[in-house]
């Protein structure tokens, strides 16, 4: 059974690309368009990894991660943050928020898969 | 991939639209967090998508723009009027860059430079090249399906990483050996990282011998299942890389620990290059371990599976304890919506979130429109046959047919409206024209719109763009007075241009108004006389003088600003609108301003027409080109030249044309007395009295193109299919009049009257 | 490759018909349908070989009077005419002919180029000749026959 990945990003283009890359790599992608939508999706699905963008309407990435980390059943799910810069402060902030790792946007599918394997086998 | 790229450009247009909306709200004074965030996110998302497709110039620009917006967002920058103007300009350029990227064209050389510099100044930065990581997504890469199938095959063939070599492989010099000591902190586990996967990643780089240090592990009664007690020492033996692969170096090893940097103790030591030992103290970590939660199978005594941070296994002690205290619970920065699942407070005026939509190929819609057109025609044919069959009008069949007709009309209207879009995008384009025009001529202009959600057929929107642009430019350039004149006249220094759209009685009404000086009628008259457009002593009403502007050859400005002198007169504007089946009128009050009113049909696919006969052929004349119908009487007809006549109508003379002759169907009639004549043309354009042999009917017809199947026919606009299945040609009156010979007399007959 | 020419030779399928008393044909691949004649709506200022347009299930189809186009004697009752609807990429048109004859399968080797006779006006419209059962069948060059798209009716 392939791993379930929940990917949250407000850009339709980014969602399309994530879906394509994840499917090609043998994962099962689930998509959400912002933090609120992501939380909704989590009610019916416990993914193996969560990938989330930071800048989103309604509930942004950090708020989303915060909410996820608060809930017992989701606390352990590895979370990768999509950042557009690899600046050190962003990584620190991501980690502070509870993220497990990060992927730089625009993402290289190889690196994406590598990152997924580092956090979810 | 091409599909996603195309979808990106569609999304980019939406983002550009919300960017405009957001900036507009901001400019109007709504400067709350959400508004700024909308603006920021729009640019941010465009940058993200553009990066994925390697659109460098766009990314660079978006990045600088985004940086400035970020400064506003964080409160570091409080933009003044000039800054907001700069943002508008940047948004315009961003739009240009997006479209250039989409169409594969280039922007003129110096457009972006000054704006980038100005943005840089705002944020007080040197315009440094931030390393923005472009990695065009190479999604065609087939990654060969990994990710844990049944049986736990977690191994991934990542190109570039050397596979595990057989032990007997001959030694090559680039073999390297490392000793890695890895001790996770509690925080590492809390962050969701899993040492197992990290060790596995190492195992994929070479042969590993792993030993686990359990000395810190407390007894079962004191253990905290969520704390980290174990440490590992890994001896990593990397074979020489295959082919041109990079050798494994310390950086590559550190990369495995990238996410946990700072969340663990990590020591990496390289050892001397040496041949691999034959007997490994422990067999290398199987790259396809069992998926049972718990310590790796080969690791030396790990009596308790307790350190597994994987989703709580059933046998682990209830993990009710809160996570280790050394990771501070992050307090999110003030974000627009801090609490999860709480709906954000409704804004007074949010940029509209698009309603649920479906994306459909335009081709499919056109096919549907065609089919519905067929339905209408078929139903008309049916009506005709029923009538011919002699059924009484109130028979069940006739009434049923009547209802059917109504239903067909409704369907047709609904289908036509599928192609309708809000006119908002056109309005936003005009907003930009106003900005550029006002900046070019140095006038302060306020642009007001109304009815931006009015829905208009897509094609109509596209074809309105040019005429509207011209009228808006005119309004700014000529309509509005110079600032000092306005002030002198007691008007506000800021001029006002208004653009309105609305549906009214089955048509679309568009108004362009300015609060400028109004039409200078004496001057207009003067120019018209100079150009020979009117006779010096002609009596004209105010409205007739206004309409002189529409005459070809009339060009308004005596002072040439950077905008006029483009060679597009109001006459072209009017004919463009008429080509859409519309009308345009002017009203103006001296000192107060000028208003252009455009009326357009809702859709282009149907036409209200008059069915006429000429020389045995049936044709359709568009209703909006028919001014009057008359019967020719003795006193109306006058000879002009040896082959032509004119008709006297309301004090003026118009040429007589014979439709049958003009289309080449027959020779001119001997005598036109008593003929049915349609006065065709536009209110103030070329007119003609057109002789038809019979007027049959007035009805709505479905327009069928002729150009695709046959080509251009002069005087003919299109074709339609009548109720009897026959094709009738649709006239193009202006074209017909323009090319008419006017022959209404055979040359060798003596001149009449 | 294969030396047995017969078995792997390229064949052409043609639809043959009679027009103006002569035998012509068109490649079957370009034929969309065959239908009976219909009254065409004349097009103003059209060349004499353009009969007009008819309604083909909602499409406006131009009709070429093939006999007139080829400069042949037009004879006979128009009511008996047949219209062959041909497709040339973006252009579709109907050819009005006397009657449809047959479907022929001709090996390419049996198609000869038309002889270069300056006097015969119809030569330009013929792309090849073939002989079937003693009769000479001309293969029509549709590109020459159909008016080019967008041409203004002179």
Topology diagram in text:
The complex is a heterotrimer of chains A (121), B (753) and C (154).
Chain A: E1 4-8, H1 12-24, E2 28-32, H2 35-44, E3 49-53, H3 61-70, E4 79-83, H4 88-97, E5 101-104, H5 109-120
Parallel strand pairs in A: 1-2, 1-3, 3-4, 4-5
Chain B: H1 2-27, H2 33-52, H3 56-73, H4 81-103, H5 112-123, E1 176-184, H6 186-190, H7 195-203, E2 207-213, E3 231-238, H8 250-256, E4 264-271, H9 362-388, H10 396-418, E5 420-422, H11 424-441, E6 445-450, E7 455-457, H12 458-479, H13 483-488, E8 495-504, E9 507-514, H14 521-530, H15 542-547, H16 570-579, E10 583-589, E11 593-601, E12 606-614, E13 617-622, E14 626-631, E15 637-639, E16 645-649, E17 652-658, H17 659-662, E18 676-681, E19 687-692, E20 694-702, E21 716-721, E22 727-731, H18 733-739
Parallel strand pairs in B: 6-8, 13-22, 17-19
Antiparallel strand pairs in B: 1-3, 1-4, 2-3, 5-7, 8-9, 9-11, 10-11, 12-13, 12-20, 14-18, 15-16, 16-17, 18-19, 21-22
Chain C: H1 5-8, E1 11-19, E2 22-27, E3 31-36, E4 50-56, E5 59-65, H2 66-70, E6 82-88, E7 91-97, E8 99-107, E9 126-132, E10 135-140, H3 142-145
Parallel strand pairs in C: 2-10, 5-7
Antiparallel strand pairs in C: 1-2, 1-8, 3-6, 4-5, 6-7, 9-10
């Amino acid at each position: 059974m392939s791993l379930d990945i929940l990917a949250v990003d407000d850009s339709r283009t980014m969602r399309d690309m994530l879906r394509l890359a994840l499917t090609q790599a043998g994962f099962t992608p689930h998509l959400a368009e912002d933090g609120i939508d992501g939380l909704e999706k989590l009610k019916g699905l416990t993914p193996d990894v969560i990938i989330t963008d930071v800048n989103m309407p309604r509930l942004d990435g950090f708020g989303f991660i915060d909410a996820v980390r608060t809930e017992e059943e989701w606390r352990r799910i590895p979370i990768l943050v999509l950042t557009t810069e690899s600046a050190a402060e962003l990584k620190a902030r991501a980690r502070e928020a509870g993220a497990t790792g990060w992927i730089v946007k625009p993402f290289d599918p190889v690196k994406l898969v590598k990152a997924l394997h580092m956090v979810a086998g | 991939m091409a599909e996603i790229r195309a979808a990106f450009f569609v999304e980019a247009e939406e983002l550009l639209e919300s960017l405009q909306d957001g900036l507009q709200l901001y400019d109007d004074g709504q400067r709350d967090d959400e508004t700024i965030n909308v603006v920021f996110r729009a640019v941010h998302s465009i940058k993200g998508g553009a990066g994925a497709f390697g659109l460098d110039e766009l990314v660079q620009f978006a990045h600088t723009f985004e940086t400035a917006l970020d400064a506003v967002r964080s409160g570091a920058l409080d933009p003044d009027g000039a800054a907001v103007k700069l943002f508008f300009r940047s948004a315009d350029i961003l739009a240009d860059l997006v479209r250039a990227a989409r169409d594969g064209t280039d922007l003129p050389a110096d457009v972006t430079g000054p704006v980038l510099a100005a943005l840089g100044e705002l944020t007080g930065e040197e315009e440094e090249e931030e390393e923005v990581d472009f990695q065009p997504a190479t999604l065609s890469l087939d990654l060969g399906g990994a990710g844990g199938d049944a049986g736990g095959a977690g191994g991934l063939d990542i190109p570039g990483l050397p596979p595990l070599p057989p032990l007997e492989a001959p030694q090559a010099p680039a073999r390297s050996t490392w000793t890695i000591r890895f001790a996770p902190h509690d925080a590492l586990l809390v962050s969701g990282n899993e040492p197992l996967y990290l060790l596995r990643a190492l195992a994929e780089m070479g042969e590993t011998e792993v030993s686990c240090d359990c000395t810190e592990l407390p007894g079962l009664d004191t253990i905290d299942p969520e704390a980290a007690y174990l440490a590992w020492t890994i001896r990593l033996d990397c074979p020489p890389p295959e082919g041109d692969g990079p050798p494994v170096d310390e950086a590559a090893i550190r990369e495995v620990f990238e996410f946990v940097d700072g969340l663990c103790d990590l020591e990496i030591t390289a050892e001397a290059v040496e041949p691999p030992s034959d007997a490994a103290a422990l067999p290398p970590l199987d790259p396809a371990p069992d998926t049972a939660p718990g310590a790796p199978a080969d690791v030396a005594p790990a009596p308790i599976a307790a350190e597994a941070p994987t989703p709580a296994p059933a046998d682990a002690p209830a993990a009710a304890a809160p996570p280790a205290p050394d990771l501070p619970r992050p307090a999110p920065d003030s974000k627009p919506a801090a609490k999860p699942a709480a709906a954000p407070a409704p804004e007074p005026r949010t940029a509209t979130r698009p309603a649920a939509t479906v994306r459909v190929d335009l081709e499919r819609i056109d096919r549907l429109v065609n089919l519905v057109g067929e339905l209408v025609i078929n139903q008309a044919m049916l009506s005709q046959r029923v009538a011919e069959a002699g059924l009484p009008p109130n028979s069940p069949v006739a009434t049923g047919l009547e209802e059917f007709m109504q239903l067909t009309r409704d369907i047709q209207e609904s289908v036509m409206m599928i192609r309708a879009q809000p006119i908002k995008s056109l309005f936003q384009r005009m907003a930009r024209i106003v900005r550029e025009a006002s900046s070019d001529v140095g006038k302060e202009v306020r642009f007001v719109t109304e009815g931006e959600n009015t829905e208009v057929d897509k094609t109509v929107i596209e074809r309105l763009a040019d005429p509207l642009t011209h009228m808006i430019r005119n309004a700014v350039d000529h309509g509005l007075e110079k600032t000092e004149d306005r002030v002198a006249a007691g008007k506000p220094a800021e001029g006002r241009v208004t653009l309105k759209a609305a549906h009214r009685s089955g048509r679309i009404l568009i108004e362009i108004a300015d609060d400028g000086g109004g039409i200078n009628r004496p001057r207009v008259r003067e120019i018209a006389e100079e150009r020979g457009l009117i006779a010096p002593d002609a009596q004209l009403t105010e409205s007739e003088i206004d309409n002189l502007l529409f005459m070809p050859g009339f060009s308004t400005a005596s002072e040439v600003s950077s905008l006029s002198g483009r060679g597009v007169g109001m006459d072209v504007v009017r004919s463009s609108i008429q080509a859409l089946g519309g009308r345009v009128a002017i009203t103006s009050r001296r000192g107060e301003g000028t208003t252009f009113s455009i009326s357009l049909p809702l859709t282009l696919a149907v036409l209200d027409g008059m069915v006429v006969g000429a020389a045995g052929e049936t044709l359709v004349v568009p209703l909006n080109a028919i001014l009057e119908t008359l019967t020719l009487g003795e006193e109306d007809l006058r000879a002009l030249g040896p082959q032509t006549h004119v008709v006297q109508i309301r004090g003026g003379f118009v040429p007589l044309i014979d439709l049958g002759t003009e289309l080449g169907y027959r020779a001119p009639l001997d005598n036109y007395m008593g003929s049915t004549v349609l006065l065709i043309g536009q209110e103030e354009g070329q007119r003609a009295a057109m002789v038809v042999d019979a007027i049959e009917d007035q009805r709505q017809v479905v327009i069928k193109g002729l150009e695709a199947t046959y080509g251009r026919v002069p005087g003919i606009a299109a074709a339609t299919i009548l109720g009897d299945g026959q094709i009738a040609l649709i006239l193009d009156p202006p074209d017909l009049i323009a090319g008419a010979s006017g022959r209404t007399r055979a040359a060798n007959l003596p001149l009449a009257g | 490759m294969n030396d047995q020419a017969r078995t792997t030779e390229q064949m052409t399928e043609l639809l043959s018909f009679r027009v103006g008393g002569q035998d012509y044909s068109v490649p079957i691949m370009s034929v969309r349908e065959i239908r009976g004649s219909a009254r065409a709506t004349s097009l103003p200022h059209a060349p004499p070989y353009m009969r007009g347009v008819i309604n083909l299930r909602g499409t406006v189809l131009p009709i070429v009077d093939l006999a007139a186009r080829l400069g042949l004697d037009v004879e006979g009752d128009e009511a008996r005419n047949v219209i062959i609807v041909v497709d040339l990429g973006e252009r579709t048109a109907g050819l009005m002919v006397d009657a449809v004859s047959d479907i022929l399968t001709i090996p390419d080797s049996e198609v000869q180029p038309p002889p270069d006779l300056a006097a015969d006006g119809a030569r330009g419209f013929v792309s090849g000749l073939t002989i079937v059962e003693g009769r000479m069948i001309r293969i029509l060059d549709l590109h020459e026959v159909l008016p080019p798209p967008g041409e203004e009716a002179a």
